[in-house]
Amino acid sequence: MSMKLLFSATPAFGHIVPLVPLMRAAVNAGHTVGLLSSAGFRDAVAEELPPEVEFLAAGVMPEVFSAEAGRRTGADVFRPTPSTIGEIFGGARVDLAVEESVGQATEWAPDLVVAEPFDAVGPLVAARLGVGWHRAGIGPSLPAVITDEIERVAEARYERPHLRPVAALSYIDPCPRQLQEPDWSPGIPVRAVRPQAHRRPKEVALDLPGFDDRGKPTVLVTLGTIFSDPDTLSAAVAAVAGTGVNVIATLGSSLRHSAASRTARADSANVRYVPFVPLDQLLERADLVVGAGGVGTVVGTLAHGLPMVLWPQGADQPINAARAAASGASITVGSAAGISPAVAAVLGQDAYRHRAQEIAADIAGRPPAATVIAEITHP
Predict the structure, then answer these.
(1) What are the pLDDT digits (tens) for 318-370?
(2) Are the C-beta atoms of 228 and 254 separated by less than 8 Å?
(3) CA angle 308, 310, 314 (to 5 degrees)
(4) Is residue 32 over pLDDT 70?
(5) Closest CA to 20 of 35, 1, 32, 30
(6) Cα separation of 78 and 363, whole Å?
(7) Percent above pLDDT 70 for the chain
(8) How do 218-222 and 288-291 pair as beta strands?
(9) What is the bridge-based pairing of β-strands 308-310 and 246-250?
């Protein structure tokens, strides 16, 4: 029987893109699929979604609700504590989105809601509409100190309409076991799902000139879509290029330097800059990835069996980088100065690649998104 599945997510690539395989599987299974997120992100994310997905616009963009959380707490939202994260996602974002979200969802009338871990809007919408919901992970589980704080702050938003928080029906987990905390338990049934590196419904045309020496290893440098500060990117590229390898570097966007980070960079003999391109297309050309530790990069890279060097910049990146390093497939560095020796170590020791390939095999054995969609729509 066909159902209406409403996905609810923070308006950011790293929060929405990991949900796309589930959306695609739901569309392919004949379900009606919607995405509830900010109108300001509609155009940016449109190319990443299956064309059948209906966009329900509600709420404000991260720079707005983050600034509001900063105003309320007096904290630096780019170096947040758990309490600040709780206010960002469980407080300010909910306050600036919930009524509009409930209105949109009421008219759309979903049968089921699927929300990512940072999203406190979807569960509240589900409670208001009296429908079930599932939590869909986007990578390694968040520490309980963070999830508890988001839930604690969000819980106060249930009191005004005289509601009680409703537990998710299950946790859809895309994280390979090697990256997950050994004793992690969300307290609800867990459904494993096979993650994928970011891809679009249609491949992006990529004009990437060949390197002068194609026999050298190729390293992909990508800092993601939020923390891609242009100076940080330049330092990372210089450190990698200094090892003598070929470099493909992605230009991203940043909340603080959005204009500067889109500025074109000049290629050199062993460096090629590319615009925002789906990770899946770039990983096919790489032997190693140097990144900041965004969950999409970490999980997508491991799905391709590639090792990493990670330089965390903020948000959940230190958590992801620490777990990737603990898996044996990555090295974490604390500054640009640590990148060159780490790149040399990973390329010079087969153990990192072998470990990444073992994790890739584990990922390949997880149930596909189609299986999970079938389970949650036919319980």
Answers:
(1) 888 999 999 999 999 999 999 999 999 999 999 999 999 999 999 999 999 99
(2) yes
(3) 150
(4) yes
(5) 35
(6) 32
(7) 94
(8) parallel
(9) unpaired
CA dihedral (307, 313, 319, 325) positive or negative:
positive
Q: How far apart are CA 90 and CA 152, in angstroms?
A: 8
Per-residue pLDDT at 261: 40
From the list 199, 172, 235, the residue with the least C-alpha distance to 47 is: 199
| Confidence class for position 254, pLDDT limits 50, 70, 90 | very low
126-135: average pLDDT = 97
How is residue 12 annotated by DSSP? S
At residue 215, does pLDDT exceed 80? yes
**Element spanning 142, H or E:** none
Q: How far is CA 220 from CA 90, 155, 290, 363, in A?
A: 35, 42, 6, 21
Note the pLDDT tens digit of each residue in 67-101: 999 999 999 988 889 999 999 999 999 999 999 99
Contact 230, 263 (CB under 8 A): yes
What is the pLDDT, as a whole number, of residue 201? 73
221: nearest Cα among 241, 196, 195, 198:
241
Give the chain's largest Cα–Cα span.
66
Q: Write the CA distances from 67 to 61, 117, 163, 203, integer angstroms.
A: 10, 21, 28, 35
CA distance 333 to 339: 7
Please give the Cα distance from 337 to 68 (Å, whole number).
35
pTM of the model: 0.86
| DSSP characters over 168-223 | -S-EEE-S-TTTS-TT---SS-EEE--------SSPPP---PPPS-TTS-EEEEE-
pLDDT at 264 over 60: no
Are the C-beta atoms of residues 217 and 307 closer than 8 Å to each other? no
When mean pLDDT is compared across 29-33, 83-87, 211-215, 287-291, the lowest value belongs to 211-215
Token pair recorded at residue 10: 């923070």
Q: Where are the alpha helices (DSSP H) in the chain?
A: 13-16, 20-28, 42-46, 62-73, 82-85, 93-95, 98-108, 121-129, 144-155, 230-241, 258-261, 279-283, 295-303, 317-326, 339-348, 350-364, 369-377
Q: How many residues does the chain have?
A: 379
d(Cα 246, Cα 248) in Å, to the nearest integer? 7
Pairwise CA distance, residues 342 & 68, whole Å: 39
